[in-house]
Amino acid sequence: MGSSFIAGNGLWSQRQEEAGAKLVSRIQELELRQVRISWGDQHGILRGKTLEIGAFMSALSDGKDFQTATLIFDTTNNPAVPPFEAHGFGDDRLTGLPDGVLVPDPTTFRVLPWADKTGWVLAEMYYRNGERVPFDTRGVLQQQLAKLDDEGYTYTTGAELEFYITRLVDPKLSFADSGWPPAAPTVTALSHGYQYLTENRGDEADAILSVLRDNIVALGLPLATVEDEWGPGQVELSFDPLPGIETADNVLLIRSAVKQICRRHGYHATFMSRPAFPNIVSSGWHLHQSLGTADKANIFPGENGNLLSDTAVHFMGGLLEHARASSVLTTPTINGYKRYIANSFAPDRIAWAEENRGAMIRISGARGDGSTHLENRIGDPAANPYLYLASQLISGRDGIARQLDPGPSADEAYTADVPLIPATLEDAVRHFEGSDLMRRELGDAVVNYVTTLKKKEISRFNATVTDWEQREYFEVF
């Protein structure tokens, strides 16, 4: 690409260099109007800029300036630290919130089928001296994948994402409703619930589900199934397994695509785990995962009548051992902890079992089945996908290194005598903040950063008078 910020700092691999060169001619052939350059922030929400074609061509060489101020926001863009004093996160380079640089990854380029002649590409955040911003969560996962590679393993994951589609009644776009955060839109149900996986319910929602399906397939994403879930208007999308970072990249795009497409057609989609409506069933994000080697794609199936290999057993032991410490990364919202209810198809304690959807870790497969793998059912569908997958590698790698024993299976998953999953985000933050493993693997700066963001969110929640409190105390006292 010649002398440039990207080439001068060696920020692209050979594969990215080749993809970047091809992308220049492809964009010209496609006659695109614009390209969105997107970055996945600390919450797994896409931020970025829309560039004219000439500006995007320049970004392929020099990156695109971008505000590091976005790093200090909690979930509603409230600063978690005083602006311009962001060195409190532990990285002096962030002091004063200087401009950063978004460096596009040309291997992620796609054409958005719902936006006229519009391209899209993922980017990574760097400081202007060419150093990676440590709070770029894609980089956090890349570091874990590199460590796993050094240990001789590959990582394969598949995602099952649950969410709700509702009919948009009032988007609440008045200035009075545009607060911090803004008023939630008024919606109504897409369909009745509690007819799990029925064809009729699925057909009732087909008008929007078919649009979602066609656009997701047009993006080139490995969609496997579109399913009518248990709740009213609840949907599950499942995706074929992919290596390395690809599932995380895809989930970032899928969630944003679903919300954009639904909104364009008069619907509102939410990946909030437990919306505040009657007759709601919580949504989750089930992560299927396995390790491989250079010689074998999946080394988790056992041999000689064993269900799992020793490597899989120890990896699972690590997931269980560090489930509380990693909970902030798998379930980063206050609302997500309201999902952990006994007998609800969501786990409430740290247990594993064979083909048991009540356990946190479900072994999917059977003895002699070459596709046998682990399914972690703990995830909040709003989780940052890079941090979710990174938490699994941090925990599983430690389990392998220490040959951790996961203990006996919990055949009755909701009565097993094992530790409970943290009941609140506040509890989860304590475990995360105090974890030696998380600090060793992520570094103090990243642990302190995530902790600060979450404590700000918790403090705002604790300062809010809820409807429950108003009903409970206002009249009786």
Please characterize this protein's 3D structure.
- With 477 residues, the protein is of the alpha+beta class.
- The chain has two domains: 5-135, Roll (Ubiquitin-like (UB roll)); 144-472, Glutamine synthetase/guanido kinase, catalytic domain (Creatine Kinase, Chain A, domain 2, 2-Layer Sandwich), CATH 3.30.590.10.
- It has helices at 5-8, 14-30, 53-62, 137-150, 199-204, 206-218, 246-264, 310-321, 327-330, 385-402, 425-433, 436-442, 444-462, 467-473, and strands at 34-40, 46-52, 64-67, 99-104, 110-112, 118-126, 154-170, 186-189, 223-228, 234-239, 242-243, 267-270, 285-292, 352-354, 361-364, 373-379.
- It is globular, with a radius of gyration of 22 Å.
Describe the secondary-structure layout.
Blueprint (H helix, E strand, L loop, with lengths): L4 H4 L5 H17 L3 E7 L5 E7 H10 L1 E4 L31 E6 L5 E3 L5 E9 L10 H14 L3 E17 L15 E4 L9 H6 L1 H13 L4 E6 L5 E6 L2 E2 L2 H19 L2 E4 L14 E8 L17 H12 L5 H4 L21 E3 L6 E4 L8 E7 L5 H18 L22 H9 L2 H7 L1 H19 L4 H7 L4
Parallel strand pairs: 1-6, 14-15
Antiparallel strand pairs: 1-2, 3-4, 4-6, 5-6, 7-8, 7-10, 7-11, 7-12, 7-13, 9-10, 13-16, 15-16
